[in-house]
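To: structure desk
From: M.T.
Subject: fold request, one chain
Message: Could you run this one when you get a chance? Sequence is below, nothing fancy, just the single chain.
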Amino acid sequence: MLSSSTSSLPAECSTRDVAQALGLAVRSVQLMVDRGELEAWKTPGGHRRISRASVERWLARRAAPGGAALQPPPLLEAGFQASSTISTSSRIPLPAAPAVVQRPSVLLIEDSVHFQTLVQLLLAHGFPGVDLHVADDGIVGLAMVGQLEPSVIIVDILLPGIDGATLVARLRTHPQFQRSQLIVITSLDESQRAPYAFALAGLPVVHKPRLAQDLPALLTQALAGAA
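Reply: Done. Structure tokens follow.
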């Protein structure tokens, strides 16, 4: 399960209730409703309500075989202290002073707190010499790319602010960002990615249920390519 039990949720939940229970951004829950993953309707006053039963079904699907990668990793449950440097979009770091040996950096553009934490732990455990920076939406992410010029950019397709596919298309055509390696992560399966094919062609794409298994090898290749 992605977060604490849903037993405290009312039978008819608000979008914010579900977001807090699952540890996701409100925008992510709205997109889940739009994709039909959660059962929702609007009250006469125009407020969106989500069935608690559909949230429980969504969690059950993630707990089924093939969805185990969405579980919080054991290091997190044991209170593991990550050694990677992480900054949030609310605290955009100033450019570092030139150094004799510059550490490689990764910029993660992702609005889900759960997947931000999972990527942070993967880097801390397998790439302790890499600095990780995080942006919560596409607009802030684009600004941080220009500021940091990271070695690797990991981008979610579905983002608030700027659609992740549009952001990827911009980065791929801008000469300033040619040195940054791109990795795309998404909860969409292959059949659902067709509308974004214009941006994804030739890029490594990681399905979020397999993030823990597939991202480390791709990240190793990307860091080598950016060196």
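Reply (cont.): Confidence is low (pLDDT under 50) at residues 68-90. Let me know if you need anything else for the meeting.
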